[in-house]
Every structure is written in structure tokens, then in C-alpha cells.
Design goal:
Blueprint: H1 3-6, H2 15-26, E1 41-52, E2 55-63, E3 73-79, E4 86-92, E5 103-111, E6 114-124, E7 130-139, E8 145-147, E9 160-171, E10 176-184, E11 189-196, E12 203-207, E13 218-227, E14 230-238, E15 254-258, E16 274-275, E17 283-289, E18 295-300, E19 315-316, E20 323-328, E21 331-336, E22 344-355, E23 358-359, E24 369-376, E25 382-389, E26 395-400, E27 405-409, E28 424-428, E29 434-441, E30 444-449, E31 454-459, E32 468-474, E33 477-487
Parallel strand pairs: 1-19
Antiparallel strand pairs: 1-2, 2-3, 3-4, 5-6, 6-7, 7-8, 9-10, 10-11, 11-12, 13-14, 14-15, 15-16, 17-18, 18-20, 20-21, 22-33, 23-32, 24-29, 24-33, 25-26, 25-32, 26-27, 27-28, 29-30, 30-31
Bound molecules: beta-D-fructofuranose.
The site of beta-D-fructofuranose has 14 residues, from strand 1, strand 5, strand 9, strand 13 and strand 17.
Length: 498
């Protein structure tokens, strides 16, 4: 694809082109019902996630005109309950001198009754050299967005390449601070801190001194927060090699946790890097603290540089459901926000004992539902469930006690995706109990294992008729308790608009 095509603005598309694209999307069998998704084109990172003027505001990276990473906009959605999302239109359009080649990722913070959106303006000169600017746009209560014509940070500090982006801002008692994703000149990743008294004048403080040197070639979308006396640094490192069950996606997202960041020395004393999600499709997460004091995370349910089956349907990707983050024994625990219960219909409940067999139950089927499946008193070698199942398709979640592994297998899920990165994802697991909490949408599954100690997030592309749910054990018995709720439509309530 040539550059002109890739960096086209929405205003350069004809009404006929947009109508054809919208029509193509409408015919896609894989449109989601309760996940934020683009009206057309490609969605990637969540941006500017904030509680402002009585509502949750969630923006995302958007290229409207195709399913490749082209000219990026910030698209705005909002919600009163973190569940029903309304499309609000474009918040930040690129194309000005500071963001001539895209309004890249960033974050939001409320000050003086305004929402300050700090983002990376991506520019290229005639020789295609990249120059990133850290920029500001402010939104008022009416939703009006104004860009500041001067950059907040105009230069790349000494020692870093032009991969310098994704400011995540927070407020400390003394100062505002932000952390920016960076690549050092020796082509290793880092996170760089700036501070500001007013969100306008920013001063370079330096790198967060982690114990992770040479850990990937670029850290995208860093995020720092504190909870219960711990400091947590989240980032998305690129360039890690697979290691056992870890790091099998093209790029990773995870965190390190430790004592709070030392604001003077920027020393950060922390434990091992851990992936936030063990599934196939999770990247560039962003957190926010809401008015109830909860730390909430949303991520892009996708991966860069991987083709997806909806590409030929004129749209790609969605965001994850919001998850509340807690800390337990030095580990981040993630649970779906309780507000999602608003979508539940009538529950269907089953209790049974299964011995070396595959069971189905009348009425236990679906394509859009929440389900909690508990296995107790596990004597079997293997227990599990298959969802979105039919004669030829199934997505399998199984716990193998001999291997001490919990595995999500999408090798028969439907239309293939990212096969070169493998068809299964696993994490370590033991014990005689297992709780699987699933959110299944038309083309995705989010699995919270044992109350959020592990999460597997994945797109799947089954046929609409693959609705079956099977519960099974191999080599012995287990008691099961299943509760399933069909879920209502919660996005695209208003027709998508640009
Ligand atoms: C992460 C990312 C960011 C960048 C944005 C551009 O997926 O590459 O680093 O700001 O996407 O859309």
C-alpha cells in the first residue's frame, strides 16, 4: 500500500466509499454485542480512559478507512456504567503540523473542569523521518475538543530514538507526572518520566530505573499506578522471545510490581515481569482510577501485525471488557467489573457429577453470554469445557492435572487467526477445584480463572450456528456447577457515526 493511501484523512473519502464500507461491515457475522468496536476500519489502543463530568470516557486509536494501521484518530465513546457505551464521534482528528501522520496514543486527566488529553502527535518529514511530539487537547463538558497548537514536549531527549510515545499522566500530591514509552539508542526499551506543575510545562526527569535492561527493543504504552502501598508499572514490550508458556504472542503486555517509585531517584525496586493476560489477543492496556477509587483496566483485544478474519469485512478489533485490578500476594488480580451484571438475563443453573464423559444440557447453548463453571472434587485427569461448539468447531478450555496446566485451545475455533503464533495458550495450574468465569461475545471469549488469578482473552471466529457448550472430564470424575446468563446488546445502541 502506498503512503498516500495509508495516511488518508476521513475527509478525503467520498460518501460512496464510506457507504460501501459501512455496508460491508453491516454484513459481517462477527460484530460484537457488548464490546466497544469501530463503526468501520481498525481500532487499536484504548486512550484517555477517565471519569469526567459524571461519566466514563473511553477513547481509542482509530483508522476509519481500512483494516490496516493508517492515519490514526482518537474516537470517543462514553458510558454511565462501564457497560453501555455510546459512540460520540471523533475527539482528535490528525492532520495538523504536530500530528500530520496520526494522533497516537495517550491518556486523560481532569483539571479545572476540563479533560486534558495528552497524546503523541506522529509526524513524518519529506524524507520520511519520524518526529513525535507530545501534544495536548482539552475537552469541555459539552464534548468540545480544542487542540493546543504548541507541543507540550517538542523534543526527543538525548539517548532515545524516534520511538518515543504514549504519555500516561497521573497526579501526585506535589506534581503531575507522566511516563512515556521509549526506545534507547542501543535499541532497548525503557519508560521515561516527566513532571509538570500545571500539565503545560513539562520537565524531563529521566528513566524509571527498573531491573529490566535489554528487555525487548521498545516499550509501548507504559502506565504507572499505586494501589495498597504497591507501585505497579504496566507496559507492552516488543521483542521478547517465547519462554516456556510465556510470551507467545507477537508482542506482550505485562507488569512489574514493587515498592512505590522513588520520585527523586526514579528507582523502582520490583519483582519479575508477569503477563497481564495469557490469551491470544491482548495489547496496550490502559488503567484509570474511577470516582469509587477502583483501578480499572481496558485493553485492545488484538495484536499488531496479525491479520484477522474481519479484515475483509471492513473492520478490525474491539476493546476488552473493563476489569478491576487488585493486588494479592504480590500479584495483580483481575475481575470483570460488577456492573457487567446489568446485562444478565435469567440465569440457567446446572449441577451434576461427570465421570469420563462429555455432557451437553438442554438449553445450555449460546453465542453471547456470561457463564461461571465450577469444578469441585476433581478426581479426573482432565476437566474442561468446549464453547461455540458444533460438529466441526469448538473452542476448548481444559485443565490437565498431570501436566498442571490450564489451556485455551482455538485450533478448531473457526476461521483461523495468527496460526504462526500457535493455536494454544497455557498457564500453570494445580489443585482439585477450578472456577472458569467466561464472557463470550459473538467473536471473542474472556476467561477469568479462579477469581481473576489468570485471564485469557481471545478473539474467535466461529460460524453463527456453533452455539454448543460441552462439559467434560477424562480419566475420572468431578462435580460441576454451571450458571449461565445470556447477555444483552450493550454497544452500537446509537447508530455508529464518524
Ligand atoms: C501500540 C501503538 C502505540 C502508538 C499507537 C498508534 O499499539 O503502536 O505505541 O501510539 O499504537 O496507533
Amino acid at each position: 500500500m502506498n503512503r498516500e493511501q495509508k495516511y488518508r484523512l476521513l475527509t478525503q473519502a467520498s460518501p460512496e466509499e464510506m457507504a460501501a464500507l459501512t455496508d460491508l461491515v453491516a454484513r459481517s457475522p462477527w460484530r460484537q454485542k457488548f464490546h466497544v468496536q469501530p463503526a468501520t476500519g481498525l481500532l487499536n489502543d484504548p486512550n484517555g480512559f477517565c471519569f469526567y463530568a459524571g461519566e466514563y470516557h473511553l477513547f481509542y486509536q482509530w483508522f476509519p478507512l481500512g483494516t490496516y494501521h493508517g492515519m490514526k484518530y482518537w474516537y470517543h465513546t462514553k458510558s454511565k456504567d462501564l457497560v453501555h457505551w455510546h459512540n460520540e464521534g471523533i475527539a482528535i482528528a490528525p492532520g495538523d503540523p504536530l500530528d500530520s501522520h496520526g494522533a497516537y496514543s495517550g491518556s486523560g486527566i481532569v483539571k479545572d473542569n476540563k479533560l486534558y488529553l495528552m497524546y503523541t502527535g506522529n509526524t513524518r518529514d519529506q524524507d520520511w523521518n519520524r518526529q513525535p511530539y507530545q501534544c495536548l487537547a482539552t475537552m469541555d463538558e459539552s464534548g468540545l475538543v480544542k487542540k493546543r497548537s504548541e507541543p507540550l514536549i517538542a523534543n526527543i531527549p538525548q539517548g532515545y530514538t524516534d520511538h518515543f510515545r504514549d504519555p500516561k499522566v497521573w497526579k501526585d500530591e506535589d506534581m503531575y507526572r507522566c511516563v512515556i514509552g521509549a526506545q534507547r539508542q542501543d535499541l532497548t526499551g525503557a519508560a521515561v518520566v516527566y513532571e509538570s506543575p500545571d500539565l503545560i510545562k513539562w520537565q524531563l526527569r529521566g528513566e524509571i530505573k527498573t531491573g529490566l535492561n535489554g528487555f525487548g527493543y521498545m516499550w509501548e504504552c507504559p502506565d504507572y499506578y499505586e494501589l495498597d502501598g504497591n507501585g505497579v508499572l504496566i507496559f507492552s514490550p516488543q521483542g521478547l522471545d517465547p519462554e516456556g508458556e510465556r510470551y507467545h504472542n507477537i508482542y506482550q503486555s505485562g507488569y512489574v510490581i514493587g515498592r512505590p517509585l522513588n520520585r527523586d531517584t526514579l528507582e523502582f525496586d520490583h519483582g519479575n515481569f508477569d503477563e497481564l493476560d495469557r490469551g491470544f489477543d491482548f495489547y496496550a492496556p490502559q488503567t484509570m482510577e474511577d470516582e469509587k477509587g477502583r483501578r480499572i483496566l481496558v485493553a485492545w483485544m488484538g495484536q499488531p501485525e496479525v491479520d484477522y478474519p474481519t479484515d475483509s469485512h471492513g473492520w478490525a478489533h474491539c476493546l476488552t471488557i473493563p476489569r478491576e485490578l487488585k493486588i494479592d500476594q504480590g500479584q495483580v488480580i483481575q475481575q470483570p467489573v460488577p456492573e457487567l451484571q446489568l446485562l444478565r438475563g435469567q440465569p440457567m443453573e446446572i449441577e451434576d457429577k461427570i465421570t469420563s464423559e462429555v455432557r451437553t444440557y438442554k438449553g445450555l447453548t449460546g453465542t453471547c453470554y456470561e457463564m461461571i463453571c465450577e469444578f469441585h472434587d476433581i478426581k479426573a485427569d482432565v476437566v474442561g469445557i468446549a464453547i461455540r461448539a458444533s460438529e466441526h468447531e469448538q473452542t476448548v478450555i481444559k485443565y490437565d492435572r498431570k501436566r498442571s496446566a490450564l489451556t485455551l485451545d482455538r485450533s478448531a475455533s473457526g476461521e483461523p487467526v495468527g496460526q504462526e503464533y500457535g493455536m494454544t495458550r497455557s498457564c500453570h495450574m494445580d489443585g482439585e477445584q477450578l472456577k472458569l468465569h467466561l464472557f463470550v461475545d459473538i467473536s471473542s471469549v474472556e476467561l477469568f480463572v479462579n477469581d481473576g488469578s489468570a485471564v485469557f482473552t481471545s478473539r474467535i471466529f466461529p460460524q453463527p450456528g456453533s452455539e454448543g457448550i460441552r462439559v467434560f472430564t477424562e480419566g475420572g470424575s468431578a462435580d460441576i456447577a454451571v450458571t449461565k446468563w445470556d447477555l444483552e446488546q450493550a454497544v452500537d445502541l446509537k447508530k455508529g457515526e464518524y
